[in-house]
Amino acid sequence: MWEPQIVDYSKVRTVDIDSLLSGGIPAIVVKNFYKKDLCRKIVTRIENCKKNYFLNGHSMHIGTFLMAYATQKELYFEDVKKYEYALNSIFSKIKNPALKIHEFINSVMPHFDISQAREFHSKYSPFIVRIHEKGKSIPIHKDNVKYEGIEYEISKIDHQLSCVLHLQESEYGGNLVIYNKQWNKENEVFRNIDFGYSSKLISSVASCEIPNITSGDLVIINPNYYHKVTKITGKNPRITLGMFLGIFEGAQKIVTWA
Ligand SMILES: O=C(O)CCC(=O)C(=O)O
What pTM was estimated for this model as a whole? Predict the structure, then answer.
């Protein structure tokens, strides 16, 4: 069986990052990573924030997301600066969950230094808040900055992980499904015109649907494995805070970005 490692934050001492990188497990789920009452407070503040739209309104974001700027590096760094204040204001007087994720990764990978990614004097986006309302889903895709972000310095990382903190769950739907198949360049013929890949790619592949995720849970995956989020069918939007981790093995360094 291909199953996630599920641990409670209060008990977690180690997590199996190596198995995640090699595909031995599909995900690491850290339950109760962030307090539910703080998630609620953040969600209330998010409701009053200016949102961006991606893929013709298919997805609603707060913050800057590198993949929307794959060939517009200058604009990406300009927009990161523009949204810095709005993003920070969501966490005013609240422990910034992005920092908490940094501290957590530092505690389970103590030989690595972790910091927000920078290129010369510019900071990469620290995280992205994604809001998916009823009827929305995220199609089958992978995230691989080594391939898609070739103009950026972080494309030189050795490995990429994705961390998603759940701030609000929908009552129904919105489940993450991970397929036991890594993307490779030959798969590009199956790419959809707008976003994602044809389901033909994963039709005979084992998969894992992550069960019972609630607000405050942190989910870590290797995003080069195909994954999707099923349609949200409840009335509450699914709201998450996501960031990528880039691991430089030689320099024993981890950088984060969105
Ligand atoms: O929201 C999620 O659960 C997954 C988001 C995603 O596609 C990713 O982290 O690459």
Answer: 0.95
Q: What is the DSSP string of 136-158?
A: --EEEE---HHHHTTTSGGGG-S
Cβ 142 vs Cβ 206: under 8 Å: no
Q: How much distance in Å is there from the Cα of 126 to the middle of ligand 1?
A: 16
Residue nearest to atom 5 of ligand 1 (CA): 164
Provide the CATH number for the domain formed by 5-257 in this structure.
2.60.120.620
pLDDT tens readout for residues 80-112: 999 888 888 899 899 999 999 999 999 999 999
Structural domain boundaries in the chain: 5-257
Cα–Cα dist 85/80, whole Å: 10
* Residue closest to 132 by CA, chosen among 210, 193, 54: 54
According to DSSP, the residues that pair with 218 across neighbouring strands are 30, 165
Q: Which residue ranges have their beta carbon within 6 Å of ligand 1?
A: 138, 143, 162, 164, 176, 223, 227, 229, 240, 242
Q: How far is the CA of 241 from the centre of ligand 1 (A)?
A: 9
Cα of 244 vs its chain's centroid, Å:
6
Q: If you compute the radius of gyration of the chain from its CA atoms, what whole number of angstroms results?
A: 17
Pick the atom of ligand 1 nearest to 244's CA: 9
211 burial type by CB count under 10 A (0-12 exposed, 13-18 middle, 19+ buried): exposed
Whole-angstrom distance, CA of residue 11 vs CA of residue 126: 27
pLDDT digits (tens, 9 = 90+) for 105-148: 999 999 999 999 999 899 999 999 999 999 999 999 999 999 99
CA 221 to ligand 1 center in whole angstroms = 8
Sign of the CA dihedral running 146, 105, 86, 32: positive
